[in-house]
Design brief:
Heat Shock Protein 90, Beta-Lactamase, 6-stranded antiparallel beta sheet, alpha+beta, 5-stranded mixed beta sheet, elongated, 27% strand
Length: 365
C-alpha cells in the first residue's frame, strides 16, 4: 500500500520523474515525463533491462537511478558535475536526446524507503536544462569578451596617452621652433585613443544586435576603406586595391568595421613605409558562392600563438595578444556578427615576421 502511494504521488509532480523497484523494473513514468519524451507510460512501465533509457539515449544503458550505489568515478563516465550526498545523487549529461534533438539534462536520483526503513526502490527527477546552460554559456562568453575588451583597451589607451603626454611635455618646455611638429603628433595620439573607444562600442553593439543580412556592394565598400585608411600623417602608407563592380555580398552594417580594424591595426603596429594589398576572388565551397577577400601587409607580422589566440574557436589568452592590439581582437568578434569567417596567415609562408595576410570569406548575394 505504501509503495502504491509513493508511486501514485510521483504521477502528479510537475517535474518529469520515474521510479523503479528493487529489481530494476520501471514502476512509475509520470505525465511530465510523457510530455518531455513523447513516450506514454503504458509503453514503458513494467519493463526492465534499462528499456526506460531508450527515449533518452536510443539504447539500453544505466540512468542515474541505476548508479546510486556506484562510486563517482563510475558515474563520471556518462555524467559530469556529479555530486553525491547520502542516498542522493545528482549530475548533468550532454549525451541525451529528447524527441530526436540533442539535449542537456540534469538528473537527481534518490533511494525510496518504506515506513520501516526498508528500501523499496529509487526515483529520478529529470529536467531539460539545454536552454539554461546555453544562456549561461552565452553570458559567460559575453562577460569574458567584455573583460578582454576592457583589458586590451586599457593597455592600448595607456600607451597612446603616454605618447600624447610625452609630446605635450615637450611643448611645455620647448622653444617656439619645435612646438609646431609636436602638437600634431599629440592630436593624432588622442584621435587614435578616441577611435579605439569607438571601435569597442561598435563591437559591443554588434554582439547585442541580431544578425540581419542585407545585400552590400563589396567593391564600393573596400574602395571607401582604402581611401580613408591611406591618409596617415607622417607615414607613407600605400594601399593597393582595384575596385570591381557587381561584387554583392550578404552581410550587415558592421562589415566595414572589420576591414577598417584589419588595416588600421597594420598601420598602428608598424613603423616607416607600409604596403597593403587587397584582392577579391569569387569561389565556390560546397556549391555555395563566396567572395574571398585577402588583405595582406608587409608589416611586422605575428607569431603562430597570437594567430591561434585571436582566431581559433577557443577563447584567446589576452596576455598573448596585447602587443598586437585590441583592434585585431575585435575583428574576430565583428566578423562573426557580420556572417563572415576570418583567418590569418603569414604573407610569406613560414616567415611570420614578414607581414600578415587576413582572409575574410563572405557569402555572395
Amino acid at each position: 500500500m505504501q509503495c502504491q502511494f509513493a508511486y501514485g504521488a510521483i504521477e502528479h509532480l510537475p517535474d518529469a520523474m520515474i521510479a523503479i523497484d528493487n529489481r530494476g523494473t520501471l514502476v512509475a513514468w509520470n505525465r511530465a515525463m510523457e510530455d518531455m519524451t513523447g513516450v506514454k507510460a503504458g509503453d514503458v512501465v513494467g519493463r526492465d533491462d534499462y528499456e526506460y533509457a531508450l527515449p533518452f539515449y536510443g539504447r539500453r544503458r544505466p540512468l542515474l537511478i541505476d548508479l546510486l550505489d556506484e562510486p563517482l568515478e563510475r558515474v563520471s563516465v556518462d555524467y559530469r558535475d556529479a555530486q553525491k550526498c547520502g542516498d542522493r545523487l545528482e549530475a548533468l549529461t550532454e549525451k541525451a536526446k529528447l524527441k530526436g534533438k540533442e539535449a542537456v539534462v540534469w538528473a537527481l536520483a534518490s533511494k525510496l524507503y518504506d515506513r520501516e526503513g526498508h528500501k523499496i526502490g529509487a526515483a529520478e527527477t529529470i529536467r531539460d536544462v539545454t536552454r539554461w546552460l546555453r544562456a549561461e554559456d552565452c553570458l559567460k562568453r559575453a562577460n569574458d569578451r567584455l573583460e578582454a575588451y576592457l583589458d586590451l583597451m586599457g593597455h592600448d589607451i595607456i600607451n597612446m596617452n603616454q605618447v600624447a603626454v610625452g609630446y605635450l611635455g615637450l611643448v611645455e618646455t620647448a622653444t617656439g621652433r619645435v612646438i609646431a611638429p609636436v602638437i600634431p603628433c599629440s592630436i593624432e595620439s588622442v584621435k587614435d585613443s578616441s577611435e579605439l573607444i569607438y571601435m569597442v562600442k561598435r563591437a559591443l553593439l554588434a554582439d547585442k544586435e541580431r544578425f540581419r543580412p542585407e545585400a552590400l556592394d563589396l567593391g564600393a565598400m573596400l574602395a571607401g576603406v582604402a581611401a580613408e585608411c591611406s591618409c596617415v600623417r607622417g607615414r607613407k602608407v600605400h594601399i593597393s586595391y582595384r575596385p570591381a563592380s557587381g561584387q554583392i555580398v550578404m552581410s550587415n552594417r558592421f562589415l566595414k568595421d572589420v576591414f577598417s580594424c584589419v588595416i588600421g591595426n597594420a598601420i598602428r603596429h608598424s613603423t616607416g613605409p607600409l604596403n597593403i594589398r587587397m584582392t577579391v576572388t569569387r569561389q565556390f565551397v560546397d556549391n555555395w558562392a563566396y567572395y574571398r577577400v585577402a588583405v595582406e601587409d608587409d608589416g611586422k607580422g605575428m607569431p603562430d600563438e597570437v594567430k591561434y589566440a585571436l582566431f581559433s574557436s577557443e577563447p584567446g589568452d589576452v596576455a598573448v595578444v596585447k602587443d598586437y592590439g585590441l583592434q585585431l581582437y575585435i575583428v574576430s568578434s565583428l566578423a562573426c556578427c557580420c556572417g563572415s569567417k576570418v583567418c590569418v596567415e603569414d604573407r610569406v609562408s613560414g616567415e611570420p615576421t614578414k607581414g600578415s595576410r587576413f582572409v575574410i570569406w563572405l557569402p555572395a548575394a
